[in-house]
Specification:
It is found in: Cytoplasm. The structure is a single chain. The chain is mainly beta. It has 2 helices and 9 strands. Helices cover 14% and strands 42% of the residues. Strands 1, 2, 3, 4, 5, 6, 7, 8 and 9 form a 9-stranded mixed beta sheet that branches. The longest helix is centred in the N-terminal third of the chain and has 13 residues. The structure holds N6-Methyladenosine 5'-triphosphate (N6E). The site of N6-Methyladenosine 5'-triphosphate has 18 residues, from β1, β4 and β6.
């Protein structure tokens, strides 16, 4: 099972998305994020991924926990993804080998170029709400070739630190 984070940096009416240049979900838009490393907390992971992928610095205490998403593949948990949201950052986004950053109006988030599940939970996160959900994919590996078949989603979730 993979444990990962995603982070959505919001500035006014815009959100910072990346076009992923390699790895899982290549060619699609998402928030910056990636796998939890040994010994790090979820917040440290979220801040590190934002720094590594787009060069912004985010104080750990400014990261709000906004979601916990479980992705299953053929009935088994594949990834648990912890979603954070913040309006506090330092620096300007820069493109890296892994990611091409883009400020996108929240009204125009390109859901047709994202993971199929994003359209279900990301609007709530961008409104400042919290979500908890399970999303089922089928059809074998890799996950980004599998088909999204079912989900269960709750808004207004609360998380343990
Ligand atoms: C199934 N539906 C999904 N919907 C939305 N987001 C999804 C997702 N499935 C995975 N993600 C996220 O995509 C990021 C990269 O995944 P990840 O495993 O880290 O791949 P990547 O090759 O980039 O690894 P590293 O950056 O090296 O850690 C990571 O934040 C992960 O939570």
């Amino acid at each position: 099972m993979i444990e990962a984070t995603l982070c959505f940096v919001v500035d006014g009416d815009d959100v910072l998305l990346i076009e992923k240049r390699r790895g899982l979900g290549e060619g699609w838009y998402n928030g910056p994020g990636g796998k939890l490393e040994d010994g790090e907390t979820l917040r440290e992971c979220a801040a590190r991924e934002v720094r590594e992928e787009v060069g912004l610095r985010i104080p750990l205490e400014a990261l709000e926990q906004a979601g916990e998403l479980t992705f299953t593949l053929d009935g088994e948990v594949h990834t648990v993804c912890h979603v954070f949201r913040t309006e506090t950052y330092d620096g300007e986004p820069v493109a890296t080998e892994e990611a091409h950053p883009e400020w996108v109006p929240i009204e125009d988030v390109p859901y047709d170029r994202m993971w199929d599940d994003d359209r279900l939970w990301l609007p709530a996160v961008l409104e400042g709400d919290t979500v908890e959900g399970t999303f089922a994919f089928e059809g074998g590996r890799p996950l980004d070739d599998a088909e999204f078949v079912d989900y269960d989603l709750e808004r207004g979730a609360s998380f343990e630190e």
